[in-house]
């Protein structure tokens, strides 16, 4: 008989009311106590669903829909540590979550947040894995056996003795999953576990989760924006939109979802039945469309084919022999990079290949151990911070680093003033990226995607000639990413040079004219986006895999429309 792993019965939740849990416990970003008793619009509105044992379920929904909130309600973090007003019932493996702490529930549900480092309590892999078991009072012999099983299951044998700080991001994420598994839970909930990972590391993590579902019958509930990465692993989906939640088989949910991967968009455009949700299914329908496109390929200008401006003008940015050393690591190893106004460059490469270090060194704030950087002839490192900002703007991977004001509205007003932009510029950019952000809310209470959009809007308002963005698509839904690509395209068209470090191949396909690939701090490929991404199974976007030579749904749509004229 199958047991229901996670059950929500008429769950309604709104932020704003005082915390209902124990006092003296550090909250998870909630500040309801000092913001008064005002209750906001419900984030979850009469949510009911049942997830059986051994199911891999995706939680999908637009930016700020409440996905993190729903996941935290599974193990009681919401409302216990966030405050808020909650009605209805959540049960995991038959246990009522109300009144229990996440630690009480560790043997039925494991929670893995977006940033594994933030959740670690020790310094070493094995200690971290053993920690939860120790807390639960498991006998040493049983504990060693359990840790070994988890190490094998998650492919961590080679690194089990290492310090956590020496692990790659994908390995750290697998350790975080392992730590959540030690207590032997029925269910695992994961909040965008691959958002910071390169495509290879993401595949490793998702394959490990897939094995847990198949070998151990664990139920996995996983929130993710990059659906193209995860659909092939999932059985079912929950769609959260406007507070309401719909559950169903993956294909059915994606067919009606406002957020769907490119393959679904292509299927809708081409009228393929289903529509297909995997590349494999889509290829079965693709032959007639390939034929039509082959006839049009010569006559249609594709967006990303716009010639590189590098050939047109003198470079805005010129770096020579740029080197960044940390103790024991050469993060950037003699990089030469020239970029002109109008270029849209994606910086790609494995986790730890040196992308962030390169961006910060180019901007002038980061460490530079050797080499030169010039932006419009000036060395940004030699300028004062205020002046530096007029040469280059950098949106950091952790968007919160850029935000200081008490409300979204104040942040936007400050950005308009600092950037000498007309009033309302920043708010308008924000609204284009993510709709409906409450201007009165504190930036720390925004969802991940909303906060990132705000940091982007603040930087784009000042619009310096060189724009550097470090992983700017975390937490953004597909419409948000398309809006970001469009805005960056407009800025490039107006003479800015835009460099984006990203693991998001679909965003790269929409945005980039040129791709630079780093490996171990060195540039190993540099050329037109279409050429570089098509040549690599790791970097190729979904559309390219189904219709070689075509990168995005919009491109295919334009080609089909051109034939209708
Ligand atoms: N502590 C809080 N106080 C007030 N409002 C909050 C708080 N935390 C989140 N919110 C709001 O609740 C809504 C849902 O946030 P949540 O983080 O659950 O969304 P999400 O779907 O996970 O978003 P993303 O896709 O960006 O990760 C957002 O509008 C957010 O601004
Ligand atoms: N402050 C630091 N001190 C020591 N080593 C560092 C520091 N910052 C980065 N490193 C190391 O330098 C190398 C490059 O890191 P960097 O963050 O630039 O890579 P990345 O390509 O941006 O990675 P990711 O895709 O994971 O964000 C890695 O080996 C990293 O561990």
CATH architecture of the largest domain: 3-Layer(aba) Sandwich
Structural class: alpha/beta
| Overall geometry | globular
Instruction: Work out the radius of gyration.
Output: 24 Å
Q: What percentage of residues falls in helices of 4 or more residues? A: 25-40%
Protein name: Energy-coupling factor transport system ATP-binding protein
Organism: Glycomyces sambucus
Keywords: ATP-binding, Cell membrane, Membrane, Nucleotide-binding, Translocase, Transport
InterPro entries: AAA+_ATPase, ABC_transporter-like_ATP-bd, ABC_transporter-like_CS, ABC_transpr_CbiO/EcfA_su, ECF_ABC_transporter_ATP-bd, P-loop_NTPase
Report a brief summary of the structure.
By secondary structure, this protein is α/β, with parallel strands linked by helices. The chain is 36% helix and 22% strand. One of its GO terms (molecular function) is ATP binding.
Textual characterization of the structure:
By secondary structure, the protein is of the alpha/beta class. It contains 22 helices and 19 strands. The protein folds into two domains: 4-260, P-loop containing nucleotide triphosphate hydrolases (Rossmann fold, 3-Layer(aba) Sandwich), CATH 3.40.50; 309-547, Rossmann fold. It has a six-stranded mixed sheet with strand order 6-7-8-3-9-10, sandwiched between helices. Strand 18 (514-519) and strand 19 (522-528) form a beta hairpin. Helix 15 (408-418) packs parallel to helix 17 (448-462) and helix 16 (425-433) crosses helix 17 (448-462). The protein is globular. The protein starts with a strand and ends with a helix. The structure holds adenosine-5'-triphosphate (ATP) (2 copies). One adenosine-5'-triphosphate (ATP) binds next to helix 1 and helix 17.
């Amino acid at each position: 008989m199958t047991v229901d792993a996670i059950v929500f019965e008429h769950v309604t939740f709104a932020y704003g009311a005082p915390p209902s849990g124990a006092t003296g416990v550090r909250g998870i970003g909630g500040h309801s106590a000092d913001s008064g008793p005002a209750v906001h619009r419900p984030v979850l509105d009469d949510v009911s669903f049942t997830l059986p044992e051994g199911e891999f379920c995706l939680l999908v929904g637009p930016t700020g829909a409440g996905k993190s909130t729903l996941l935290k309600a599974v193990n009681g973090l919401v409302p216990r540590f966030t405050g808020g007003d909650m009605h209805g019932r959540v049960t995991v493996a038959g246990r009522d979550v109300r009144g229990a702490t996440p630690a009480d529930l560790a043997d039925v549900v494991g929670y893995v947040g977006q940033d594994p480092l933030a959740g670690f309590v020790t310094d070493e892999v094995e200690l971290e894995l053993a920690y939860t078991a120790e807390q639960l009072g498991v006998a040493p012999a049983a504990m060693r056996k359990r840790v070994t099983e988890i190490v094998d299951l998650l492919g961590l044998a080679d690194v089990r003795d290492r310090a956590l700080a020496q692990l790659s991001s994908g390995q750290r994420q697998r350790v975080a999953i392992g730590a959540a598994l030690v207590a032997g839970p029925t269910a695992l909930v994961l909040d965008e576990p691959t958002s910071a990972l390169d495509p290879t590391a993401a595949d490793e993590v998702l394959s490990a989760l897939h094995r847990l579902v198949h070998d151990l019958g664990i139920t996995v509930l996983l929130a993710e924006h990059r659906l193209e990465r995860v659909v092939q692993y999932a059985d079912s989906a929950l769609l959260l939109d406007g507070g309401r939640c719909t559950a169903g088989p993956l294909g059915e949910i994606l067919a009606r979802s406002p957020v769907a991967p490119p393959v679904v968009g292509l299927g809708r455009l081409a009228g393929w039945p289903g529509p297909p949700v995997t590349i494999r299914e889509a290829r079965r329908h693709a032959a007639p469309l390939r034929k039509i496109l082959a006839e049009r390929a010569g006559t249609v200008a594709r967006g990303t084919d716009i010639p590189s401006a590098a050939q047109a003008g003198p470079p805005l940015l010129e770096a020579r022999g740029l080197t960044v050393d940390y103790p024991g690591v050469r993060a950037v190893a003699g990089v030469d990079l020239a970029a002109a106004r109008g270029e849209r460059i994606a910086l790609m490469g494995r986790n730890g290949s040196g992308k962030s270090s390169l961006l910060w060194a180019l901007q002038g704030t980061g460490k530079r151990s050797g080499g030169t950087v010039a932006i419009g002839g000036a060395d940004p490192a030699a300028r004062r911070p205020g002046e530096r900002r007029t040469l280059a703007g950098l949106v950091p991977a952790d968007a919160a680093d850029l935000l200081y004001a008490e409300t979204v509205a104040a942040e936007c007003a400050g950005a308009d003033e600092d950037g000498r932009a007309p009033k309302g510029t920043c708010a308008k950019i924000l609204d284009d990226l993510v709709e409906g952000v409450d201007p009165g809310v504190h930036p720390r209470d925004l969802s991940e995607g909303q906060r990132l959009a705000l940091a982007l809007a603040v930087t784009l308002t000042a619009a310096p000639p060189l724009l550097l963005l470090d992983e700017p698509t975390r937490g953004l839904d597909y419409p948000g990413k398309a809006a970001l690509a469009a805005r960056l395209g407009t800025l490039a068209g107006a003479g800015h040079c835009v460099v984006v470090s990203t693991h998001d191949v679909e965003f790269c396909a929409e945005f980039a004219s040129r791709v630079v690939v780093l490996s171990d701090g060195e540039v190993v490929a540099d050329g037109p986006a279409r050429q570089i991404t098509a040549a690599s199974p790791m970097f190729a976007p979904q559309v390219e895999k189904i219709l070689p030579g075509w990168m995005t749904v919009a491109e295919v749509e334009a080609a089909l429309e051109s034939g209708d004229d």
